[in-house]
UniProtKB/TrEMBL annotation:
<feature type="signal peptide">
    <location>
        <begin position="1"/>
        <end position="29"/>
    </location>
</feature>
<dbReference type="Pfam" id="PF08266">
    <property type="entry name" value="Cadherin_2"/>
</dbReference>
<keyword id="KW-1133">Transmembrane helix</keyword>
<dbReference type="InterPro" id="IPR050174">
    <property type="entry name" value="Protocadherin/Cadherin-CA"/>
</dbReference>
<dbReference type="InterPro" id="IPR013164">
    <property type="entry name" value="Cadherin_N"/>
</dbReference>
<keyword id="KW-0472">Membrane</keyword>
<keyword id="KW-0130">Cell adhesion</keyword>
<keyword id="KW-0677">Repeat</keyword>
<dbReference type="InterPro" id="IPR020894">
    <property type="entry name" value="Cadherin_CS"/>
</dbReference>
<feature type="domain" description="Cadherin">
    <location>
        <begin position="456"/>
        <end position="565"/>
    </location>
</feature>
<dbReference type="GO" id="GO:0005509">
    <property type="term" value="F:calcium ion binding"/>
</dbReference>
<feature type="transmembrane region" description="Helical">
    <location>
        <begin position="646"/>
        <end position="666"/>
    </location>
</feature>
<dbReference type="InterPro" id="IPR002126">
    <property type="entry name" value="Cadherin-like_dom"/>
</dbReference>
<feature type="domain" description="Cadherin">
    <location>
        <begin position="351"/>
        <end position="455"/>
    </location>
</feature>
<keyword id="KW-0812">Transmembrane</keyword>
<protein>
    <submittedName>
        <fullName>Protocadherin alpha 13</fullName>
    </submittedName>
</protein>
<dbReference type="InterPro" id="IPR015919">
    <property type="entry name" value="Cadherin-like_sf"/>
</dbReference>
Amino acid sequence: MLFSWRGGPGAPSLLLSLLLLAVWEPGSGQVHYSVPEEAKHGTFVGRIAQDLGLELAELVPRLFRVASKGHGDLLEVNLQNGILFVNSRIDREELCGRSLECSIHLEVIVDRPLQVFHVEVEVKDINDNPPVFPESKKRLVIAESRPPETRFPLDGASDADIGVNSALTYRIDPNEYFVLDTRNNREQTSSLSLVLRKSLDREQIQEHSLLLTANDGGKPELTGTVQLLITVLDVNDNAPEFDQYIYKVTVLENAFNGTLVIKLNATDPDDGTNGDIIYSFRRPVSPAVLYAFIINPNNGEIRTRGKLDFEEKKLYEISVEAIDKGNIPMAGHCTILVEILDINDNTPEITITSLSLPVREDAQVGTVIALISVSDRDSGANGRVTCSLIPHVPFKLVSTFKNYYSLVLDSTLDRESVANYVLVVTARDGGSPSLSATASVSVEVADVNDNAPAFAQPEYTVFVKENNPPGCHIFTVSARDADAQENALVSYSLVERRVGERALSSYVSVHAESGKVYALQPLDHEELELLQFQVSARDAGVPPLGSNVTLQVFVLDENDNAPALLPRPFRVALYTGEISTTRTLDEADSARQRLLVLVKDHGEPALTATATVLLSLVESGQAPKASSRVLAGAAGAEAALVDVNVYLIVAICAVSSLLVLTLLLYTALRCSAPPTEGACGPGKPTLVCSSAVGSWSYSQQRRQRVCSGEGPPKTDLMAFSPSLPPLTVLSFKVLHS
């Protein structure tokens, strides 16, 4: 950019070329630009989007924005071309004062994902401020008796610029009495003095008028002037003198009011009132000095009077003069440099911005939650701040730049375990004792559908009486989903299947919201003893998750069927007691048959007895076994004989004897016929009959087989007739009831 300024006739033209630098500093994580102060609106600063590696098309969708703490809208970014430009007037002196370094720190923030970049724009100084003297006219009173080489301090000019632009040189009008002397010290302060080169003679010249000019080092250079009016007095010829021209003292910033800073001592060799000294601050006195210090005019003590603050002002330069009380007062001068020492009196400050809440529980490790910046107005170790985070998991602090941190996710989240985290960020300085500040961040974890509904147990057993009314509530299933809101909203449904030739939904239904299971029709135990089905629970998440539970519904029998006579495959002879089959036995018949035989005599009154015969159908070739229940029954029957009436026993024995004789005769006749096949060869299933005292078997292949039980000597003998198939006769003799 070119700037030109044209003065009056003969004034030189000024050509100012301002170079704008845009440099990426590798490894620093920061983009650095520079711009001169007083640059016009729209001045190009840098291609910030390109330098940050961002595409122009993503600036608006990613909410590209620039933040500058305390610097308003000095700089702005054109979102169309990604150029950083000057938006309003930048005055370096107003922005940074006389600091050698002046920069505008920008935070560039983009979302999706959240990123933050740090940009530093250095403001370059231009020579836009001329030297300025405190007064336009300076009056000096010098006694004619002052010897040559006497020094008279002058107030130098100040230049708001820095560097070479503020390097001042002085000159005065040529004269034979006074010259200028400028001395620099290690504290980078300059001392300007007017030195008497030749003794004054009031009789010749009563007043001298000199023009003092200050030039800065800028190009073009700027100047400032002050008129020196020197009055020559012909009185007191000795001025007070200090033992040092410059004093250096240090004071803690927390010093109490009235703390002694220094006690000055000036001497005047004159006698009487000409040697009496009054101390005072040399005018003009800066307001900062008047606010912070007070001087005792009689003894020269300088004490504190206001609160000192290292962060506000680190060094005070106090000019003191000692004036005697002569008719023509004479003054001595000195300068006190008061350095304020820092103490750790400022706690760190924490600023939390760009919160991205709530955080989804499936957020990736490394997700940025918030941006945190810390600061401390103290200096040195007192202003060095470190940050810590409690709790340490599942979050952590990552340092992105000096005193800048990112709060990031360090491990996976589970909302069902912890739904909200209260994080405490602690900033602690390096002072002794150290000071700290805390800030709380509440991080809410947003739910995702990562839990399926769960039943308390995988299977339930339900008992329902048959003949229930239609629509009867028989059970309620309940599943719990650990998620929240719609992800935890559970609905129920049947897992459809066929039950015989009918659909499951024709038997039962389930309410989608309550999980109540209803029987849609009366259940019949004789038709369906067990109804087994599954109920599905599914949440409302995206995608939905679900699980199943099995219900076993047992239909309980009720006495809702009248007895019915069924053909049984056996019969007993009325007088002989023979038990025979009425049809061919097959595998469809029950494997076990229970026969109850009643024996009745013809006496008056008639007496009766009963016998129980248990029959088992077994494969041919298997040995018939008497059941343990039968043996146990036999033992019980024998025990019961003790209580039987004697007369009943006699009658039963008579009838039994008759039956035994009949059986023996019948057996003898049958055994006289020749056998046709082996007695115990393999064949079809064999009927095994068990009584209270033994067992017998019957073969359907017309084989004669006689089985005797393993019971006591009273075992009944049973025979099968091979000549009457399929009508087989079983005869027995009742020995006891």
